[in-house]
Amino acid sequence: MTEKAxxxxxxxxxxxxxxxKTYQLDxxxxxxxxxxxxxxxxxxxxxxxxxPILTGSEVMLRAEYRGAYGQAFTDAPADFxxxxxxxxxxxxxxDPHARGVYFAAINAALRYLKLIDHTVHCRTxxxxxxAVSYIPYLKERFPGARIALIGYQPSxxxxxxxxxxxxxxxxxxxxxxxxxxxxxxxxxxxxKDYEDTVLNWADLVLCTSSVFCNATMDRYIDIGKPVxxxxxxxxxxxYLLGLDRYCPKSS
Length: 251
Fold this sequence. Notes:
Blueprint: H1 3-22, E1 31-37, H2 39-43, H3 52-55, E2 59-65, E3 68-74, E4 80-83, H4 84-88, H5 96-112, H6 126-141, E5 147-150, H7 154-161, E6 168-172, E7 181-182, E8 185-189, H8 194-199, E9 204-208, E10 227-230, H9 235-241
Parallel strand pairs: 5-6, 5-9, 6-8, 9-10
Antiparallel strand pairs: 1-2, 1-4, 2-3, 7-8
Helix pairs in contact: 6-7
């Protein structure tokens, strides 16, 4: 893990601790519950079957705080039941299993405070509807941008591939995707092709917020060009860091 990633994690933890103090959240009496969801529990029954959660490369955790829910994608799942204080004390730097619980839990806590929304993944056909909505949104905000899509999200990649005014490249870390051509776009390697695609080529980075769980978020923060995050995993972290997210169909 890089020094920059360590600083970002510390900034997130410090920001959340300030929120807890400001709003006087009870860190001991209220229990956080976090569990892994089945694919059907997570996103329902979908017509397309190539989402990462359906292919076995990711698991979704759901945390509850005072009746508010937060979710997070992770490849290192862990069930948890304990206090908010225990969550705050988790070692998210060294323990990847703790990260999923932590980010799901702080999503739930900030959702309870109504500081954020869109912390529960969209379901059934909503992921496709979400992808379609990206095209006018991106064309308005970033007209003619060359887009680096970080993280294989098939609906978004397919939608982008059909829009000639938004030239797109895609990167992923899953060996099952890297080197494959999907919707006419070859999937590059998230590390090996990072500099060429993200730093040297792209005008806009469209990045999965799952990078907060796999500790690669440092590659997409303060890089001298706009980065737009999508997904529910980093909802609270993105709020605490003052970053940009678009996740229209989540709830």
